[in-house]
Amino acid sequence: KQEVTQIPAALSVPEGENLVLNCSFTDSAIYNLQWFRQDPGKGLTSLLLIQSSQREQTSGRLNASLDKSSGRSTLYIAASQPGDSATYLCAVSYMDTGRRALTFGSGTRLQVQP
Amino acid sequence: EPEVTQTPSHQVTQMGQEVILRCVPISNHLYFYWYRQILGQKVEFLVSFYNNEISEKSEIFDDQFSVERPDGSNFTLKIRSTKLEDSAMYFCASRTGFIPYEQYFGPGTRLTVT
After folding, report:
1. Which residue, among A36, A100, A60, has the nearest Cα to B29 in the 3D structure?
2. Partner B contacted by A57 (CB < 8 A)
3. What is the CB neighbour count within 10 angstroms for residue A8?
4. CA distances from B94 to B45, B56, B73 (A)
5. With an 8 Å Cβ cutoff, are B45 and A103 in contact?
6. Are B105 and A42 an interchain contact pair (Cβ–Cβ within 8 Å)?
7. Do B41 and A89 lie within an 8 Å CB cutoff?
8. What is the number of other CB atoms lying within 10 angstroms of the CB of residue B12?
């Protein structure tokens, strides 16, 4: 069964710190990987998408990397701010899902203390 | 910027009642999805829809569920006879037919079954 795991489940850091969120997935036959942000009781905002042929993607203070062979992705957040407080979800689209359904991890709940 | 919209934002229904959740995908998108998130759990795939038919469904999507694209803009999820365990946030997503196949999510409908 294809599984996506995220660690840590929760993280609390002081403002300004750089941090790394981890995502691991079974089965390296992925098509792409998306990182999402979810605020409490809200929808999913796509942050970054990495195709299986790519190693990393950057958007502002966010950098996501992908290592297919080890089944890992990381989301790096530079100079964290209180507004970054949210749950971050990793989701994988596997090759054998014909219409690219996403398999989600359980998320990392991030709290950035001012 | 175009976005996926969902109505209603919150629906309360009694067990055994039928509910219809509505979504308006982004206008040039071709692939449509429903996901759900039970409180405190992972986001789970329910069904994908393309070219007016279901292309993939999970084991959660049993005979109580159905989807429809009744016109050129709406995409609906119907639950025929709701159960307590159907209480969840339901997310609609859509994407184009072009690489990198990024999925865009709506804000969700919170369904509460009493």
Report:
1. A100
2. no
3. 11
4. 13, 14, 12
5. yes
6. no
7. no
8. 13
Query: Would an 8 Å CB–CB cutoff place A76 in contact with chain B?
Result: no
CB contact under 8 A, A106 and B100: no
Tell me which chain B residues have a C-beta less than 8 angstroms from the C-beta of A106.
Answer: 41-42
- Predicted local distance difference test score (pLDDT) of residue B91: 97
In the predicted structure, residue A98 carries a pLDDT above the cut 90: no
Instruction: Give the Cα separation of B38 and B61 in Å (integer).
Output: 14
Burial (CB count <10 Å: 0-12, 13-18, 19+), residue A112: buried
Backbone φ, ψ for residue B3 (5° rounding): -145, 160
Distance CA B104, CA B99 (A): 14
Q: Which amino acid is at A109?
A: R
Put simply, the answer to whether A46 touches B102 (Cβ < 8 Å) is: yes
Single-letter amino acid, residue A113: Q
| Spatial distance between the Cα atoms of B69 and A56, rounded to a whole number of angstroms | 36
> Do the Cβ atoms of B47 and B56 come closer than 8 Å?
yes
Q: How far apart are CA B109 and CA B9, in angstroms?
A: 5
- CA separation for the pair A114, B12 (Å, rounded): 37
Per residue in A2-43, pLDDT (tens digit) is 899 999 999 999 999 999 999 999 877 888 999 999 998 888
Q: Quick check: A101 contacting B, CB < 8 Å?
A: yes
